Predict the structure.
Amino acid sequence: QVQLVESGGGLVQAGGSLRLSCAASGSIFSIIVMSWYRQTPGKQRELVASTTSAGTTGYADSVKGRFTVSRDNAKNTVYLQMDSLKPEDTAVYYCYARGKVSMTTGWNDYWGRGTQVTVSS
């Protein structure tokens, strides 16, 4: 199986920055996509940013120009640099990966437990 562990959340003032990290470990053969989602109470989990093994990236409109997703394929780690943070960015941020544990198995979805990001006004 694959485990995802997030780190880097915390409390920051509006306009500040945080960097989230997510490391994948376990029986990893290949990870094709690593993403960050976020969720606030009573709302659906939303996609924030994604990066593929080929290096392509994508962002939610609400974070474009402020957040940057990057990936270290050798370490199976994805990062989310969050700048110019706003109170509306407050949420639990979850790491997601789509991967497989061997050449012959199918692709599976994996989630981290989440890390809280709180932006004060």
